[in-house]
Amino acid sequence: MNKRFVTFFLGVFTVVFLIELMFVKRNTNGDNFYDLYASFNKIDGVNPGDKIMVSGINVGYVEEVALKKNYPIIKMKIAKNLDISDDSSVSIQTDGLFGSKFLMIEMGGTNNFMKNGDYFSFTEDSILIQDLLENIIKIGEKNKI
To answer: What values do phi and psi take at 103, rounded to 5?
Structure first.
């Protein structure tokens, strides 16, 4: 009877521990990042945790996606050691044809750099495959003989 009692509580402890691991908020060291924001018209498929890239190098991640005045706002965590000029742009890209989404920052050319809490002035929305196919069909119909 004692062995069954120990086994039962060991199992309960293991299940509780695994559930706790699933719901623990992952801490990232906030000291190494600063916050930037971008407003888009549509952000189809962008989720918290998605990568932010500059020239193919991962420099941060999407922390939060929210609506503000009916427009999606993305809060980004960017590595503190990266200076982004204030005329830079951010676009939503897809990894391959049906891959995951990520944000790509195209660096500008000024010597004025963005600070914590700044918004990108230039953004490019996500391209939907459906919209792309519609454009290809329209071009094909125009060029029909």
So the answer is: -100, 135
**Domain span at 46:** 30-142
**33-61 pLDDT per residue, tens:** 999 999 999 888 889 999 999 998 999 99
Question: Is 7 domain-assigned?
Answer: no
Q: Is residue 47 part of a domain?
A: yes
Residue 21 phi, psi dihedral angles, 5° rounding: -65, -35
Let me know if residue 22 belongs to a domain.
no
Q: Kindly state whether residue 10 falls inside one of the protein's structural domains.
A: no
- Which of 118, 46, 34 shows the shortest CA–CA distance to 81? 34
Q: How many CB atoms lie within 10 A of CB 5?
A: 9
Q: Per-residue DSSP letters for 83-105? A: --BTT-EEEEEESSSS--EEEEE
The answer to whether residues 74 and 37 touch, using CB atoms and an 8 Å cutoff, is yes
58-98 pLDDT, tens digit per residue, is: 999 999 999 998 899 999 999 999 999 999 999 998 887 67
pTM for the whole structure: 0.68
Q: 3-state class of 144 per DSSP?
A: coil
